[in-house]
Amino acid sequence: MKWLLASMAVFAVTALAADITGNWKATTQGPNGTMERTFVFKVEGDKLTGETTSSMVGKSTIMDGKVDGDNVSFTITVRFQDNEMKLNYKGKVSGNEIKFTVENPAGGPTLEWHAKKAS
């Protein structure tokens, strides 16, 4: 019986993680107004892959992606004004929304992105 309950708990976490698979649209406030970014997520177990696109820096591949319950984390590399930089995303899923905190390990401001699942 304990094994069955443990299996059901693992399945429930996996089902929650699989819930973010698909297209998401995110916004944040930058120094020049609202910025937009789209995400295409694919979840297999606790592994997160996919890509993200913004009008400012183009398309980036999601690397080192992980889903742990309702917590999401990944890294992307962007090219901005001929400089490459890594951005670390950490988010919390709540229904059809994800709130991300984005940090540049080299320094700079932390951004808060608010993503909604696209219908």
Can you describe this structure?
- With 119 residues, the protein is mostly beta strands.
- It has a single domain (2-117), classed as Lipocalin.
- Helix content is 14%, strand content 63%.
- The chain contains one helix and nine strands, in the order αβββββββββ.
- Strands 1-2-3-5-6-7-8-9 form an eight-stranded antiparallel barrel.
- A hairpin with a 2-residue loop joins strand 6 (71-80) and strand 7.
- It starts with a helix and ends with a strand.
- Residues 3-16 have low confidence and may be disordered.
Distance between the termini: 39 Å
Largest sheet: 8 strands, antiparallel, barrel
Percent helix range: 10-25%
H/E series, N to C?
HEEEEEEEEE
| Helix count from the secondary structure assignment | 1
Structural class: mainly beta
- The CATH architecture term is Beta Barrel
For the biggest β-sheet, the strand order reads 1-2-3-5-6-7-8-9
Strand content: over 45%
The first-level CATH class name: Mainly Beta
Oligomer: single chain
Label the overall shape.
globular
Strand segment count: 9
At the fourth level of CATH, the homologous superfamily is Quinohemoprotein amine dehydrogenase alpha subunit, domain 2
CATH-defined topology? Lipocalin
Query: Rg from C-alpha positions?
Result: 16 Å
Q: What is the count of distinct domains?
A: 1
Mean model confidence by pLDDT: 86
